[in-house]
Amino acid sequence: MNFPSQPTLSVVIPTHNRREAVTRALGALSKQVYPAAEFEVIIVADGCADDTVFFLQKQLSSYPFMIRILEQQGMGPAAARNAGARQAQGQTLIFMDDDIEPLPGFVGAHCNAHNKPRRVVMGPCPPRLTKQKGFFRHALQGWWEVMFDRMRQPGYRFSYTDLLSGNLSLSRSLFMEVGGFDPRFICHEDYELGVRLLQAETEFVFEPSAEGYHHEMSDLRRSLERKFQEGKADVALGELYPQLCSTLPMHLLFRKVFLASRIMLFLAFYLSWAGDRISRLVETLLSFAEGAKIRRVWRHLLKGLHGYWYLRGVAQELPHFGAIRYYLLERPAVIADALEVNLADGIAQVKQQIDEKQPMNLIIYYGTTEIGKITQPGRERLRGKHLYHILRHELKAHTLRALAQANDLDIPVERETLIEKCDEFIAFQEKHGYAPS
To answer: By CB neighbour count within 10 A (0-12 exposed, 13-18 middle, 19+ buried), where does 307 fall?
Structure first.
């Protein structure tokens, strides 16, 4: 087959000893609606010791698109993606994990989403769970669903933690401009890139049509190892970006006054040998809790296990317990000046003010009553489209309390009624420009 000398898109897939997975991914890419002659696929074999490279080289002629295979010596997924991007000929890069099985509209959806400059596009990866059983299977399924449901919400404000390197596209020039993935990160390399992309004033976009099934292979042991690596990576993130420390899970675990959190911290930093033994005991208790169908206890036990192994990763990078206090509480965070807006001026006016200033932080008033502050480092700049989501989800109770004080209203207790009343207020404001009496 004759391929164009300059494809418009390059799909970069890092892989490590997973011949079956990468073959499945390539088979799905062969069924794309987007013309196969207009994109290339670059496989980066990162320290593969199996027959992945040999097998793929024999199959090159069977694929309808141009395919190249690069090899490197086990340098990690970040370095593998960078190597693929350097060799890419397309103007747009699509990064895809080898365990993703893209649907037929995958490549075309990514391509069409780049109808504006400086966009970063993520697509959903609904999990295909075959190995997992019982409560763990349901917990894993729920984790993925919550993440994608959150990004689907109108007016959602994207964070650096929303960047998904397993289903991601951006222009090659933008990728090179920000320096690509940081190869020092073996875990959360996508989070770190997300920070720099947001700092570079890019627009994050969630494109539901850019969908690919994720053949999830995690089990309990892998999830605990993952938490350990996340703890190590988050220390590095905090070192590079001190303003993000308050957004890291270690901050929440350290600030909690619950006895369990304090015990986990002590064990992780001072008695890890005992903590590891207790961890194995808790794993056994998980089985008993599931057998007895006590889902709530099972969830608490799993949460405790994840918290402990995350802190074990943190302790691996920090010299002593006192370092975490300095790391989280005493390092100065850079917070930009906040824009003050007043809902009494009307929703349309407030949206316009936010769009004009595009602040990082926001203080919202209704009349003389302060509704709340939005100070969330590591997120995209605020725009008018975010206001509804903020009022409805993040500050709904505060919004209604302010209205009640100003207009002598009753505050509903039920959550659904609270959201309904908040929606009524926002809709009235948008239509009339003032509060209902």
So the answer is: buried
Question: Distance between CA atoms of 55 and 313, rounded to whole angstroms?
Answer: 37
Minimal CA–CA distance to 109: which of 129, 130, 94? 94
CA atoms within 13 A on the CB side of 40: 23
End-to-end Cα spacing for the chain: 71
Query: Structure pTM?
Result: 0.88
State pLDDT tens for residues 19-59.
999 999 999 999 999 999 999 999 999 988 888 888 888 88
Q: Which two tokens stand for residue 344?
A: 């009494």
pLDDT tens digits for 73-119? Answer: 989 999 999 999 999 999 999 999 999 999 999 999 999 999 999 99
Domains of the chain (ranges, CATH numbers): 9-217 (3.90.550.10), 221-330 (no CATH), 338-431 (no CATH)
Average pLDDT over residues 303-328: 82
More confident residue, 239 or 31: 31
Rg, the chain, Cα only: 24
